[in-house]
Amino acid sequence: MGAKKKKIEIHTENEEKGKQKKTSKKIDSGKKDKEKTDDPLKVMEARLESMEQESKDSHDRFLRVSAEFENYKKRAAREMNDFRKFANESFAKAMLYVVDNLDRAIESSSDDNHSNSSVVEGVNMTLKEILKIFGQFGVKPFESLGKIFDPAVHQAVMQEESDDHPEKTILTELEKGYMIHDRLLRPAMVVVSKRTDSQNQEKQAQEE
Fold it and tell me: Of 150, 132, 88, 91, nearest to 141 (Cα)?
């Protein structure tokens, strides 16, 4: 029994020594790792890299915000400019009917021998003044007579056969068209030429 007890005691002592050695090794390795991680130079380098990245990110954000702000300023200036240019569009469009009536009065009086010349002159002066004011706000009539029909600025109300004009030529201008700056204010109401029966027969013969 005594021998067995001694063996057990020796064995436990050896195990304790082994554990102590392992623990000391772990502590030593932990200290070495801590020394590595706590290297001031490496810590400073890591911080410097982090700060450089943050600075770069902040600079990129600043550039994006600056670009967006510049685009906003340009868009706002463009919208304000458009507002100033076209603020009177509705009013000018309503006044066109007054101009049309004055035009018709002058045309009808020119065919009337008994018309009062002073009244006609007064109407003509009024029309000129209105057109002058229109011009100050960018409202101007455009010519359509004799030109090829353009659906972007012309409104055809009828077609008329013609041997003397190419197809889709504007023969008559029933109502003047107007622009406000570079925008259409009102299309011109026109009569457009079309081929006669003889022209259609000639074209069919050429195609055959």
Answer: 132
With residue 156 as reference, give the H or E element that holds it: strand 154-161
Q: How many C-beta neighbours within 10 Å does residue 134 have?
A: 20
Q: How confident is the model at residue 6 (pLDDT cuts 50, 70, 90)?
A: very low
Helix spans in the chain (H): 2-37, 40-86, 89-110, 117-136, 197-207
Q: What are the DSSP calls for 3-56, one per residue? A: HHHHHHHHHHHHHHHHHHHHHHHHHHHHHHHHHHHT-HHHHHHHHHHHHHHHHH
Domain ranges of the chain: 2-82, 88-137, 140-208
Q: Sign of the CA dihedral 27, 29, 31, 33?
A: negative
User: Any idea how long the chain is?
Assistant: 208
d(CA 178, CA 128): 15
On the question of pLDDT at 112 being above 70, the answer is no
Give the model confidence (pLDDT) of 134-181 as tens digits: 999 999 999 999 999 999 999 999 999 988 888 999 999 999 999 999
140-208 topology per CATH: Nucleotide Exchange Factor Grpe; Chain A, domain 2 (2.30.22)
**pTM attached to this predicted model:** 0.62
